[in-house]
């Protein structure tokens, strides 16, 4: 779609102002190119979804007391974390009476990621936000409820307890 839009933009500049003169057509084509480049950069930004990496802010979707965490390090020595991977995070926002306080370093399992992930049947799963469920060192969830959809890929990563707490499995 972006390629067809770019080709239409380049054709519009030449077909409308082809016989007027070099100075006016040059100005119009450059403004047309600016509009096309802006559209293409928006398309590329939407398509460029990245890993959960260092300094990524994630939403906490359990009732442990934390609201937002920032990823310090993805475990397993990888560049980034995807669905079902465990990360080390720092709590940035927390409820005043929760189990987890602001500034505490915690472990978390990524349950929603904006980066798409292919499934065995050929479909792809992608979420609107990046979300995490806080767990202890053994992998047991700190909270007792999980809000929002959770992908069934967590079953392969041995996070069955999170799936049992979730209300909706995607």
From TrEMBL:
Keyword field: Ribonucleoprotein, Ribosomal protein, RNA-binding, rRNA-binding
Alphabetized SUPFAM superfamilies for the sequence: Ribosomal protein L14
Family annotation (InterPro entries): Ribosomal_uL14, Ribosomal_uL14_bac-type, Ribosomal_uL14_CS, Ribosomal_uL14_sf
Highest taxon of source: Eukaryota
GO biological process, one term: translation
One Gene Ontology MF term: structural constituent of ribosome
Record-linked Pfam families: Ribosomal_L14
Database matches in PROSITE patterns: RIBOSOMAL_L14
Any one annotated GO CC term: mitochondrial large ribosomal subunit
Entry similarity comment: Belongs to the universal ribosomal protein uL14 family.
Protein's UniProt name: 50S ribosomal protein L14
């Amino acid at each position: 779609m972006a390629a067809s839009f770019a080709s239409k933009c380049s054709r519009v500049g030449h077909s409308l102002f082809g016989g007027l003169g070099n100075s006016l057509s040059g100005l119009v084509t450059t403004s047309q190119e600016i509009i096309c480049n802006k559209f293409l950069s928006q398309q590329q930004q939407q398509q460029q979804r990245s890993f959960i990496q260092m300094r990524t802010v994630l939403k906490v979707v359990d009732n442990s007391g934390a609201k937002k965490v920032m990823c310090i390090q993805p475990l397993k020595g990888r560049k980034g974390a995807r669905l079902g991977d465990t990360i080390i995070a720092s709590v940035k926002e927390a409820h005043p009476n929760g189990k987890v306080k602001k500034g505490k370093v915690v472990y978390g399992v990524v349950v929603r990621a904006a980066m798409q992930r292919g499934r065995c049947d050929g479909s792809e799963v992608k979420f609107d936000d990046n979300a995490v469920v806080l767990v202890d060192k053994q992998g047991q969830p700190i909270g007792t409820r999980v809000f929002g959809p959770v992908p069934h890929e967590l079953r392969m990563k041995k996070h069955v307890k999170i799936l049992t707490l979730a209300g909706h499995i995607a």
